UniProtKB/TrEMBL annotation:
Keywords: NAD, Oxidoreductase. The lineage of its organism: Bacteria, Bacillati, Actinomycetota, Actinomycetes, Micromonosporales. InterPro entries: 3-OH-isobutyrate_DH-rel_CS (IPR002204), 6-PGluconate_DH-like_C_sf (IPR008927), 6PGD_dom2 (IPR013328), 6PGDH_NADP-bd (IPR006115), HIBADH-like_NADP-bd (IPR029154), HIBADH-related (IPR015815), NAD(P)-bd_dom_sf (IPR036291). PROSITE patterns: 3_HYDROXYISOBUT_DH. The keyword Membrane does not apply. Residues 5-156 form the 6-phosphogluconate dehydrogenase NADP-binding domain. Signal peptide: none annotated. It holds the Pfam family NAD_binding_2. This is NAD(P)-dependent oxidoreductase. Belongs to the HIBADH-related family. Residues 159-279 form the 3-hydroxyisobutyrate dehydrogenase-like NAD-binding domain. It comes from the Bacteria.
Length: 284
């Protein structure tokens, strides 16, 4: 498909820079968010959800499966058969499969294509995209996804992208938990967190947290990565729910889920996930 007409729903921390890149790449684009939003370049701003109906590809970048399902329940009857629905949110794989099956009955195609790389990656177009769906549909989407990400990983059938994303964030969160714990323990022993993080980054304990989050968002007190703590807690919950549904043990993952769920219940939707640096050291 060359230059498909794109509808884009969800212009938050991630969706807005992603939609901006698509507009800048010349795609005919119609955008919508439930909250008031500023126009995006050449894109048409829809004033209601139904304004994105007449498109070839519908991209969703929404908080979770419940919101995605609500939006598609409303919109699906207005989409033409053959429309390719692409859920780039971090959604629940089993709900994604059920949703894709329902949409398929209406002749709608579905690909899950969640991303990793944060707001910086969304702005730079350097996201990792993990895609689940029909290989032909993924081929069709490649040029478009290439505007948003540098690595487009085909993971498997529908739902596999969402499963892979939740598992990635489980690893990311667990690494953050233990990294922050080590920094706090080091500090209690008299090692400055800056020094301890330099040790990690020069040694086998280094991670995405130690390399890209500790100095950048934690030690300077900015906590401004743009990824909400409650969204990360949601992703970890999706991963451990997956373990339950597969009847697989997940001992460490369950501990990580308990910790993030407890802290997520005590913060606001705006609290950044990097604030774990402050919150983890003070268990109630
Ligand atoms: P966000 O909360 O900043 O944005 C979500 C947007 O959806 C908001 O603008 C909100 O108004 C809109 N919205 C909510 N309900 C709606 C509805 N019914 N109709 C239309 N719009 C609606 O979240 P985000 O950080 O952009 O994350 C979006 C998704 O991407 C989440 O699933 C998140 O887990 C995932 N994600 C986020 C990051 C990150 O760094 N922020 C990175 C990778 C993946």
């Amino acid at each position: 498909m060359s230059r498909p007409r794109i509808g884009f729903v969800g212009l938050g921390q991630m969706g807005r820079p992603m939609a901006t890149r698509l507009a800048e790449a010349g795609y005919p684009l119609t955008v919508f968010d439930a909250a008031p939003f500023a126009p995006i370049g050449s894109a048409t701003s829809a004033t209601a959800l139904e304004g994105v109906a007449g498109v070839d590809v519908l991209i969703l970048m929404l908080p979770n499966s419940a919101v995605v399902t609500g939006v598609l329940d409303e919109l699906a009857p207005r989409l033409s058969p053959g429309t390719l629905v692409v859920d780039m949110s971090s959604s629940e794989p089993l709900q994604t499969r059920a949703l894709a099956a329902r949409l398929s009955e209406r002749g709608l195609r579905f690909v899950d294509a969640p991303v990793s790389g944060g707001v910086r990656g969304a702005i730079a177009g350097s996201l990792a995209v993990m895609a689940g769906g029909d290989p032909g549909d993924l081929d069709e989407l490649r040029p478009l996804l290439g505007v948003l990400g540098k690595k487009i990983l085909e993971v498997g059938p529908v739902g596999s992208g969402h499963a892979a994303k939740a598992l990635n964030n489980l690893v990311s969160a667990a690494t953050m938990s233990v990294t922050v714990e080590a920094l706090q323990l080091g500090a209690a022993f008299g090692i400055a967190p800056e020094t301890m993080n330099a040790v990690l980054n020069s040694s086998s304990g280094r991670s995405n947290t130690s390399e890209n989050k500790v100095t950048q968002f934690m030690l300077d007190g900015s906590f401004a990565s743009g990824f909400a703590l409650q969204l990360m807690a949601k992703d970890i919950r999706i991963a451990v729910d997956l373990a339950r549904s597969l009847d697989r043990p997940a001992e460490i993952s369950d501990r990580v889920a308990e910790q993030w769920s407890r802290i997520a219940a005590e913060v606001t939707p705006k609290t950044d996930h990097t604030q774990m640096y402050d919150l983890i050291g003070d268990p109630k």
